[in-house]
């Protein structure tokens, strides 16, 4: 079942956020954002590490004050993942975090005052090779655009973004990416589609303020899925009113479902019915929890009966098909074993880990021979 994605991605200029390439032919990166007080260094570092462990490529940190900027410097020393500083209005904060090792500045040039201040930030970013993210949000459009359009619209979002782009263009600064986020799926999708035809820089995708874990996951999956299917998007953040770790998990699941990234296990599981020969839902919940640490790309099928079970199991790395009196297990498409119900999860976990280790060793050998 290892099929390449049929999606043809939009051609964009590549930038570097720390050691993570964004745009061009780079994999679509997954981002999240801390929700701790940035001045609480220990709590923020701990959360960043959890976000990174979940698979995030890049982490954004809000830096609303000079006190937070100094804390950011301490945080930067203690984590390895690329960090984006989220800054509004005060250009001095941007200059300070740049000196403290920030990997990207999320700052709208038009919102930080006089031209002299804008130029100071651009010059600093040029000197230290720090990219900028222009971040337009439907909830915080400029007052004149609110008056012009009456309400947030895709056209208003794009006009706002292009204003900021024009400032960077004026000073010959091309090391940036752009987002045009809205909580309304149709507005966000239309804005990104429009902007994608007008600039060559990478696009950071997001449905902003999408909602809680369940509703926000659905809304983000629909909106981001539509754009990603169009080939639009170089980095994504799923904005949930939930633990940031959940944002990373959902982001990865979206990319894996479209075969745009392949880290970790891709589970195929039936919704279960009265034909099931074991508790599929309980088995899946336990496996997902136990196997979150696996980063090796794998397909695993868990099917409760023999109607679809063998067919699905033959197409994956490890497959389970419910059977009586024992459940059938396939490895690499071939029947390999039969597992009892009583120790089903333990047996499956052990087999999947064994297969993951073998795949990792195989990959290492291929790299060594290359």
Task: Supply the key terms.
single chain; alpha/beta; TIM Barrel; 18% strand
Task: Give a written overview of the molecule.
It contains 12 helices and 15 strands. It has 370 residues and is of the alpha/beta class. The protein folds into 2 domains: 15-257, Dihydropteroate synthase-like (TIM Barrel, Alpha-Beta Barrel), CATH 3.20.20; 265-369, Sulfite Reductase Hemoprotein, domain 1, CATH 3.30.413.10. The strands form 3 sheets. An 8-stranded parallel beta sheet has the order 8-7-6-5-4-3-10-9. The protein is elongated and about 75 Å long. The two termini are 25 Å apart.
- Under the CATH scheme, the architecture of the largest domain is Alpha-Beta Barrel
- What is the domain total for the residues? 2
- The DSSP helix count reads 12
**Helix/strand structural class:** alpha/beta
Given this structure, which CATH class of the largest domain is correct?
Alpha Beta
- Could you tell me the strand content as a percent range? 15-25%
Provide the low-confidence segments as ranges: none
Estimated helix fraction:
40-55%
CATH-derived topology of the largest domain: TIM Barrel
For the largest beta-sheet, the strand count, sense and barrel status come to: 8 strands, parallel
Superfamily at the CATH H level of the largest domain?
A: Dihydropteroate synthase-like
What's the mean pLDDT score?
94
Give the SSE string: EEEHEHEHEHEHHEHEHEHEHEHEEEH
Spatial order of strands in the largest sheet:
8-7-6-5-4-3-10-9
- Shape descriptor: elongated
Secondary structure tally: strands: 15
Radius of gyration: 23 Å
């Amino acid at each position: 079942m290892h099929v390449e994605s049929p999606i043809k991605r939009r051609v964009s200029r590549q930038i570097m956020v720390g050691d993570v390439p964004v745009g061009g032919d780079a994999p679509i990166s997954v981002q999240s954002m801390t929700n701790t007080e940035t001045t609480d260094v220990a709590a923020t570092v701990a959360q960043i590490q959890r976000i990174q462990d979940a698979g995030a490529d890049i982490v954004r940190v809000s830096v609303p004050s000079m006190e937070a900027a100094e804390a950011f410097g301490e945080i930067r020393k203690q984590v390895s993942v690329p960090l984006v500083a989220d800054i509004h209005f005060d250009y001095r904060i941007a200059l300070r975090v740049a000196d403290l090792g920030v990997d990207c500045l999320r700052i709208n040039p038009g919102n930080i005052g006089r031209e002299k201040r804008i130029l100071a930030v651009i010059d600093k970013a040029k000197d230290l090779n720090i990219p900028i993210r222009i971040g337009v949000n439907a909830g915080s459009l400029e007052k004149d655009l609110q008056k012009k359009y009456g309400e947030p619209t895709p056209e208003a979002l794009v006009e706002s973004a292009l204003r900021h782009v024009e400032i960077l263009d004026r000073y010959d600064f091309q090391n940036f990416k752009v987002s045009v986020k809205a909580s309304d799926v149709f507005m966000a999708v239309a804005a990104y589609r429009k902007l994608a035809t007008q600039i060559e820089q990478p696009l950071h995708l997001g449905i902003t303020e999408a909602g809680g874990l369940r509703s926000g996951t659905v809304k983000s999956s629909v909106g981001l899925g539509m754009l990603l299917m169009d080939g639009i998007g170089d980095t994504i953040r799923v904005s949930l009113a939930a633990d940031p770790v959940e944002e990373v998990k959902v982001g990865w699941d979206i990319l894996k479902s479209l075969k745009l990234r392949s880290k970790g296990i891709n589970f195929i599981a039936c919704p279960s019915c009265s034909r099931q020969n074991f508790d599929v839902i309980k088995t899946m919940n336990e496996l997902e929890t136990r196997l979150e640490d696996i980063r090796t790309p794998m397909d695993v099928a868990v099917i409760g009966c023999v109607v679809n079970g063998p067919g699905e199991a033959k197409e994956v790395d490890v497959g389970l098909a419910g059977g009586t009196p024992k459940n059938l297990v396939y490895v690499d498409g071939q029947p390999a074993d039969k597992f009892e119900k009583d120790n089903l999860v333990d047996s499956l976990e052990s087999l999947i880990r064994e297969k993951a280790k073998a795949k990792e060793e195989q990959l290492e050998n291929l790299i060594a021979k290359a």
